[in-house]
Amino acid sequence: MDVFAWVVQAMLAFVFLAHGLLYPFPPPAVQENQKRLPFPVGFMRSIYAAEILAALGLVLPGLTRILSWLTSLAAVGLVPIMGGAVVFHLSRREIASAIFAAVLLALAAFVALVRWSAFPN
Fold it and tell me: pLDDT digit string (tens) for 33-64?
């Protein structure tokens, strides 16, 4: 289970780091889409920053063995972000994107549960 959790963590970290870096370094096609988002710029910056920090929080504590409990908190932090993404994509009838966001939500919840249970009360 630990190996599977690490694979999921690494995959989530890659996806969220890549998506988080799209805001400061967008390719031309993404720049057009960013202009059409119905959210304020500050809100989008905070989402992208949270994604980057969560990506780091998914892998760095385990690799450095410093404050390992932060991994579960990083995963828990991704759950509401992805919940909002599911609702957003469903409201725009973007079914494929909503399903992808729901899968990422489930994987983040899985990592949160597995890593939180590694620290008994």
Answer: 777 778 888 898 899 999 999 999 999 998 99
Angstrom distances, CA of residue 113 to CA of 2, 25, 76, 81: 12, 33, 9, 17
Task: State the Cα torsion 7-8-12-14 to the nearest 10°.
Answer: 10
Number of domains composing the chain: 1
**118 sits in which H/E element:** none
**Res 98 pLDDT > 70:** yes
Rounded to a whole number of angstroms, the distance between the first and last alpha carbons of the chain is 20
Which structural domain range is residue 17 located in? Answer: 2-117
Which residues does 44 contact at the CB level (< 8 Å), separation at least 6?
A: 23, 34, 37
The confidence score (pLDDT) of residue 33 equals: 76
Tell whether the torsion through CA atoms of 114, 115, 116 and 118 is positive or negative: positive
pLDDT at residue 104, rounded to an integer = 98
Tell me the two tokens of residue 8.
């999921």
pTM over 0.85: yes
